[in-house]
Amino acid sequence: MDVGLVGQPNVGKSTLFNALTMLNVPMAPYPFTTVEPNRGVAHVRVACPHTDLGHPCTPGNAPCQEGTRWVPVELVDVAGLVPGAHEGKGLGNRFLDDLRQAEGYLQLIDITGATAPDGHLEEPGRFDPAEPVRFLEEEMVLWLGEILSRQWEKAARSLELNEGKVEELIASRLTGLNFKPTQVLAAFRHLPLDLTHPTRWTEADLVRLARELLRANRPRRIVANKADRSRPEEAARVAEELAPLPCAPASADVELLLRRADQAGLIRYHPGDSRFTYSHPEGLKPAQRKALEEVERFLSVWGSTGVQQALEALVFEGLSRIVVFPVEDETRWTDGKGRVLPDALLVPRGTTARELAFRVHTDLGEGFLRAVDARRKRTLGADHPLEPGDVVRVVSKR
Ligand SMILES: Nc1nc2c(ncn2[C@@H]2O[C@H](COP(=O)(O)OP(=O)(O)O)[C@@H](O)[C@H]2O)c(=O)[nH]1
Ligand SMILES: [Mg+2]
After folding, report:
1. CATH says 2-138+220-315 is which class?
2. CATH number of the domain located at residue range(s) 150-217 in this protein
3. Using a 6 Å CB cutoff, which residues line ligand 1?
4. pTM above the 0.90 mark?
């Protein structure tokens, strides 16, 4: 699953990307295929079940630190959004291509209002920080609307003649976006469209449909960045302006500084925490001390940098993901090689026991007999929806 970072140039996307993809935790070598420089691995936190088991775990994909499991999520720093992207201007095509792959995104805005639409800086308060949020939505709606409108009449006529299903036609036109026909049906519920006569739909209808599809299926959260140059009242004002879209203040700069200082051994800081401790206070250079004292002041005002929280809110709330732990031995919580709780899998809320089996291996899914809830020692049927933190053994014919 990909999470995209979007926003106009200079709002802090690369800084946020660098901070989020830096985790100072011992990790097992794990083959991540990094194909492009703007892709990286970030992590979301969950409690590791090993504390309930009473033995340490042997993590494979998701490192464990003091009972916190860091579960990987792929992050894409999307090329800067420019006006006219849907017409293929500038980096438009590249931008939309990256975005298409992301299942949800964090949109960064400059809460100080100093960043112009093209990314150049002016004095704080010069621009409305919320404007780029409306702009991005319009740009995406127009783009999707255009894809839907291409030769719509012809496609709709043929559909009516063959008495086909309009939700399937639409899903197939948007294959790159992975909309399922059921998701298209859900979008119809909010629109007064005559489903048996798609030839009567206007271009405006298709644009409205595009908007509904995006709202329901591409969750986003707004990261009001550069909070270190702003005030909580201003953050609250912007959040109110954007509601019901979730928006929370953050400082990518401060988060990056904290993670780097931790990696350099100057402090101990766990991403997402509201404080840090000094490792060797006496060894700090005056400039380092001054910078870290500023960070302490920032944390006392804002509570945290907001960076880790923004990603987790998107993954767990926006994208409704939960983390489950497949094992092969329901007593020792191990895999076939005796590793304890090796895998932490991020799956959609509502994933069933059988769907988890398919996620682990096709054979396991096809030969599915039953699953065992290893915490409660209960048998789970194929259609049983899993809960966050479940430790599950799949019993299969093969
Ligand atoms: N004050 C402040 N500056 C930031 C913050 N995040 C990023 N910046 C600065 O904003 C500028 C642009 O950041 P960058 O990550 O390159 O933005 P991008 O163009 O969106 O990728 C750099 O000078 C960053 O140091 C922040 O949280 N606070
Ligand atoms: Mg950048």
Report:
1. alpha beta
2. 1.10.8.470
3. 7, 9-15, 225-226, 228-229, 251-253
4. yes
